[in-house]
Design brief:
Helices cover 59% and strands 10% of the residues. The protein is an alpha+beta fold and 357 residues long.
């Protein structure tokens, strides 16, 4: 069963696209790309051709620069050594490490620059063997590590896929029950359940669809998740009047799956409560969702401009399931849960969750 489609979202506030996520250090990204290039699943013949091309570039670099770089030109040999270790593993690194000094020395001799060769040929030769062997060992280690990471990602992707499908089945069964339910109270309760399940399923759908490092950060980005969740809530509204406005102002915070699920459920409960109870007689109903980080504290603020809470309401005497669930989810996330009525702007209701980054 496929997931319900996302609705369009009012892009007001500071919700920016495209997403700019935090990434790994640039040198780590480039090193990873280089390692992936030299460890592509080539045939032996293709590996030899690739290595020959790199070796040719190395020889050309030596020939054109040895006259003015002198002994420093020796370092060019690390390029084909690195490639040999990546393509052929420990054995390749060891063999080319043993051939690195003779290769350099031969080029120096042919150029008439034998005086520019290393002062101690034995130490240089041993250094080449050790360096090539170490590079080859880590090349093999990286290959095994990458295979384990790929397997782990495949298993995790399959897990999210199965969870998403199972939750989709629950959503579908609930929708069928809603259509067959003649009792309005029961229908509203089933609709609430469906939306709660959808808030959880949406997380697994995002994580299933985005598996590499950058995409996973995108999938865990709170701003896009909130926007998509609000879009779904808008298109699924059945209350009158249907013209409830949503203002989403969310920073791009990379959150864990549990935090995203809890945030999604809290937003879901707040929106459902507001749609059912807050806007009687309100001409311009508006729900505002803000997520920000201030001084090391993440703050989720949910506001409406509705009728607010009744006089004498106490957060410590909550009886409604919606507020009780929001408070429970906040405590589960280690967040402080506050309710203000009237809200910050003198109307409606504010629900604020604060938890450390």
């Amino acid at each position: 069963m496929t997931m319900p489609s996302w609705g369009d979202v009012d892009k007001r506030g500071d919700l920016l696209f495209p997403i700019r996520m935090q990434t790994r250090p640039r040198f780590v990204v480039w090193l990873d790309r280089i390692m992936r290039i030299v460890q592509i699943d080539f045939s032996t013949a293709q590996k030899l051709v690739f290595f020959a091309a790199v070796y040719t570039v190395y020889v050309a670099s030596m020939v054109t620069t040895a006259s003015f770089l002198g002994v420093s030109a020796n370092y060019f040999v690390f390029v084909p050594m690195f490639v040999a270790a990546g393509l052929f593993g420990f054995g390749g690194g060891l063999v080319f490490g043993a051939l690195a000094l003779p290769s350099n020395y031969l080029i120096y001799t042919l150029l008439g620059l034998s005086d520019a060769a290393p002062e101690s040929l034995v130490i240089a030769w041993i250094s080449g063997i050790v360096t090539g062997g170490v590079l080859g060992y880590f090349g093999d280690f990286y290959r095994r590590l990458q295979a384990a990471v790929d397997l782990n990602q495949d298993l995790l992707r399959e897990l999210h896929h199965r969870v998403k499908n199972n939750l989709g089945i629950i959503i579908g069964l609930t929708e069928h029950q809603i259509m067959d339910c003649p009792e309005p109270t029961a229908m509203r309760a089933l609709t609430r359940i469906k939306r709660r399940v959808f808030a959880i399923a949406a997380i697994h759908d995002r994580l299933y669809s985005h598996t590499d490092d950058t995409d996973t950060r995108y999938a865990r980005d709170a701003s896009t998740y909130i926007a998509e969740l609000v879009g779904h809530l808008r298109v699924s509204m059945t209350v009158e009047p249907p013209a409830i406005k949503f203002v989403v102002d969310a920073e791009q915070l990379d959150l864990g799956t549990d935090d995203l699920v809890n945030i999604g459920l809290v937003i879901n409960e707040f929106v459902m409560n507001a749609m059912e109870h807050a806007f009687s007689g309100v001409t311009d109903p508006t729900i505002t969702i803000r997520l920000a980080r201030n001084d090391g504290v993440r703050e989720l603020t949910l506001s409406d401009n509705g009728v607010g809470l009744p006089d004498g309401f106490s957060i410590d005497k909550i009886r409604t399931l919606g507020f009780a669930l929001m408070r429970s989810l906040a405590e589960k996330s280690g967040a402080r849960f506050d309710v203000r009525s009237p809200g910050e702007h003198g109307v409606g209701l504010d629900v604020v969750l604060r938890w450390p980054s």
